[in-house]
Amino acid sequence: MSFNIGHILSSMSPVSLAILMFLLAMAIAAIGVTVERVIAFWRSANESRAFVKVVSPMLEDWNVDQVISVSKQYKNSALAALFGPVISRYQRGLEHAEGGLTPVELARNESERQREKVGSELRRGMNVLATVGSIAPFVGLLGTVVGIIAAFQGIGATGSGGIAAVSTGIAEALVETAFGLMVAIPSVMLFNYLNARVAGIELALSRSLGELMDEMEGQHGVVDSKRKKAA
User: Fold this and answer.
1) What are phi and psi of 98, to 5 degrees?
2) Tens of pLDDT along 97-155?
3) Whole-Å CA distances, 33 to 37, 104, 123, 173
4) Whole-model pTM?
5) What does the alpha-carbon distance between residue 20 and residue 179 come to, in Å, rounded to a whole number?
6) Burial class, 207, CB count within 10 angstroms (exposed 0-12 / middle 13-18 / buried 19+)
């Protein structure tokens, strides 16, 4: 028996076809999420590099008001999404003390919240890949079971038996399992790839935030010294 996809599709029951279409939809969703995330990471990396070039001189002169303004222009940059709110929180802490915390401590707390927010945004849609990778084999197995049941029902209806009578039906049913695995395996690989990309981005963001916090502590120390001398 030659492998003929047209013959297989034409001989499948409506239930088996529905399961196959569901697997196809899962494959399309997995590909769509992967493409969207790769493009989002690429845009974020490009805008973050441009953002760093613009704000580096500002941070050296500690013109944080300009940094806050510039960060709003780079909407696709994960780094700008962190620096803007964190520096804004630091500025508000300088103007209004809250709960006995220093502006640097307030900014550090804000950085943790913003890092969680950015991490959630970076992982947006990846749960689709995880779901497809975990359930696609079982969906394919369901299609196989349905196909085998239909094959044996055909044997009962015609009264014929033997391996020749069921081999074609079973082979067609097993295509569902094969397709399920073909969807699941790439989905798991793509999920692991994107997860590794996110981990790398988060590590770079943590390093940049650490440098920003160090600079804030230094600048806050200078401000305190000036206040004490003035007093």
Assistant:
1) -130, 125
2) 666 788 888 899 999 999 999 999 999 999 999 999 999 999 999 988 888 887 777 66
3) 6, 38, 10, 29
4) 0.83
5) 8
6) exposed
